[in-house]
Amino acid sequence: MNKSLGEVFRSAWNTTKNNFVPLLVGILIYMAPAMVLSIVSTAVLPSEMMGMESLGGVMVGLELCLLLYMVFISPLYMGYITSVLRTWHLTGTPAKMSTAWAAAKANYGRYMTTLLATVVISFAAVLIIAFVSSIAVIGSVISSAGSFYGSSMDSLMFMEAMVPALIVMVALILFYSFCLSFVNFIPGMEVPSGFQAVFKSFRYIFRGNFWKNFGHTLIIGLITVGIELVVILPFYMPYISAALSPGATPSDIAYASTALTAVMPLYILLSTILGIFLQTFTTPYMFEVYLNAKGVSDGKDSQQMQRTYGDPYANFTQNNNYTQPPYSGGQDPPQIPPR
């Protein structure tokens, strides 16, 4: 199995079309509370009703609630979605929401341990990325040190020298996120969970045709970003126009910023609704990419075993003169002496 881009799109669309209701319901149940918390946390509360310190405390509390919600509910959500996709993949029939919910509850512990393992490995990855980025920053600054001497724009030139380091940091973060593309499917589809599931995601990325996995993921990422930009730009265009206008005054920019803040809850609502509908396709799409990568990786493992150990069935028949014993254990039954 090594599907082309068109085959992955067709399979994902077929999965979405036949499982739209259970997928949409699961995503809605998961995203609706997060959407409400995000809208409330970004809403502008009148300063006359509470002081700035109280306002800051409310914001921190809402963000903390949102974080805890995502941590404890996301394993249940991914277990449900993976169960829906697994049922369609194995049986070709739409999954029942009750069955998917039961599977999500049964696999909750496996998904939670996988989430915790991902957090631990991500923390280590952040440290490594920060170290590499620091080296890139030092190298960029040293290479541009001669341009700083005697210049009246030292700070601006220093930031310009840091641009390569920032590019390196962003590239490493995106690459690490790409390597985790399959970790949400593995606990519900295979035996491994926890750290093993994270390492298997890396293995499938690299061993399951790296460039095809990268291309599939890049394409769906570009499509998603392009659709989201269509929604984002109308909200930001007045502010961008005011900021870039040659004759704009500080009051014009402040007014545009105030207007942008006022419509931010509406933007969050629309972008969340758009994200919900996009996930009904992008999640099955990445599931198809995962199945394709797993199939390629398993095929390579099977070929390697055959090259190393040969065909075990052929060796068995050769050692037994191409005859199969009638009883298990590879031994004939004892002979009964005649009377």
TrEMBL record:
<feature type="transmembrane region" description="Helical">
    <location>
        <begin position="20"/>
        <end position="45"/>
    </location>
</feature>
<keyword id="KW-0472">Membrane</keyword>
<feature type="transmembrane region" description="Helical">
    <location>
        <begin position="253"/>
        <end position="278"/>
    </location>
</feature>
<keyword id="KW-1133">Transmembrane helix</keyword>
<keyword id="KW-0812">Transmembrane</keyword>
<feature type="transmembrane region" description="Helical">
    <location>
        <begin position="115"/>
        <end position="142"/>
    </location>
</feature>
<feature type="transmembrane region" description="Helical">
    <location>
        <begin position="162"/>
        <end position="186"/>
    </location>
</feature>
<feature type="region of interest" description="Disordered">
    <location>
        <begin position="317"/>
        <end position="339"/>
    </location>
</feature>
<protein>
    <recommendedName>
        <fullName>Glycerophosphoryl diester phosphodiesterase membrane domain-containing protein</fullName>
    </recommendedName>
</protein>
<feature type="transmembrane region" description="Helical">
    <location>
        <begin position="57"/>
        <end position="80"/>
    </location>
</feature>
<feature type="compositionally biased region" description="Polar residues">
    <location>
        <begin position="317"/>
        <end position="326"/>
    </location>
</feature>
<feature type="transmembrane region" description="Helical">
    <location>
        <begin position="210"/>
        <end position="233"/>
    </location>
</feature>
